[in-house]
Amino acid sequence: MTQENALSDIFRIAIGQLNPTVGDVAGNLAKAREARADAAREGAHLLVLTELFISGYPPEDLVLKPAFIRACWKAVENLAADTADGGPGVLIGFPRQDETGRYNSVAVLDGGTVIAVRDKIDLPNYGEFDEKRVFNQGAMPGPVNFRGVRIGIPICEDIWGDLGVCETLAESGAEILLSPNGSPYYRGKVDIRHQVVLKQVIETGLPLVYAAQLGGQDELVFDGASFAFNADKSLAFQMSQFETALAVTTWKRGETGWHCAEGPMAHIPEGEEADYRACLLGFRDYVNKNGFKTVVLGLSGGIDSAICTAIAVDALGEERVRTVMLPYRYTSEDSLKDAADCAKALGCRYDIVPIEQPVTGFSSALSDLFAGTESGITEENLQSRARGVILMAISNKFGAMVVTTGNKSEMSVGYATLYGDMNGGFNPIKDLYKMQVYALARWRNENVPPSALGPSGEVIPNNIIDKAPSAELRPDQKDQDSLPPYPVLDDILECLVEKEMAVEEIVARGHDVATVHRIEHLLYLAEYKRRQSAPGVKITKKNFGRDRRYPITNRFRDR
Fold this sequence. Notes:
Low-confidence stretches: none
Distance between the termini: 68 Å
Strand order of the largest sheet: 5-4-3-2-1-14-15
Oligomer: single chain
CATH class of the largest domain: Alpha Beta
């Protein structure tokens, strides 16, 4: 540390709330360099980037490849060399391996070199996290001397768990805590993060900066909303949610330590706005990061395909979204009109491909095998599978990713057809119950979220929202013919899935015992379908996939 670089009573910390891509080491390095250049122009002393930024988070089994680990370390060395110019130092996450094991690490770069490396201690192994599988536990750290300031670097779970990492840092002389995080979104997560950080601030008496990753990665959405609390428990700054950002915060050293004197105070969305923006970000990043130029989906005139079309247009723009109405003899005039009106309101391409001939062809081909049997669900599912084949053919021909549109209520009880309406590469509403889908549709008709590329106004016709939901696989069919009303179904499912409640507890809430037993049975029975479903944005605390892992072969019932 040269004398001219030593900090006195002012410390300008830049928080890079960026959008790295898993596996794109070169691209992530380029983003770090660009952020550092921006931070330098604004007079920052240190740029803080997020957990495993160089590799992208979560890298999962990519870190088992030595070539990948080497590429990440080379990128860190290259970024360290950049700091020889006297500009901002960098705090950045990366995976590393040495003779003792493999670690989720952070490097502090300054003066052209790596001045310190710290390893994550508390490895999460619950919900969407599986870090104990691929990483070793790091040693309890001490603070890093950065230009005369002793910074403690607890990495994500190190501030969430009970291992006392922050207390150890405080006891060993840290003056300020900088915590790089990879914390996925679920409803209400910002308030929970605030509570976690406040607990550490109270216990250590130190200010804590929480640097949060942004962007979609498969099912997970990282929503940003970086922030800090001062040692006096006041909110020091709050960055925006669901938006790429770089914020330079000014800290001053006083008699009681460091205090944030200047930083942003952004509005944090709540409720339907937050959920919609999470769906939007997760869908946009999945499509763009996987290189799809366009998407296609069946637009049926129902609420699920309508909200998915709105999300797709908002995420990608109308020119990249293609919708197809696939009518059969049971498709109502209302549905034909509603689908056309929805596509027109959103400005996307709309085609009509009748499925009478393919369904008749399948039925004819199977007529000898099915002779003497009653017509029923098998024949209904032929309609869905014909639609699935057509959408996949359009995908193959034009390179458009198929968007699948089943909500969490349907996916819970198996109200979906394998190789039919479940066909597709991604599902933006997979973790939204039916009533939440309706709430988001109403919200979107009255609001245009930031960064949305779609139009304002009523983009989902009110008739779609108001009419009784139906798969239209037989005359006058309604969902409630075979399912409880959705408000009832959703409450039972939330009790079973999110809260893991016993049947007797759910019945005590006012539900019919036979209905609860039936829904529990359907939930377990549909596990094999969910294992074959497309990934979709995580919105609730417990989604199907990363969070909830039940056996397919399962004879347990709560009786």
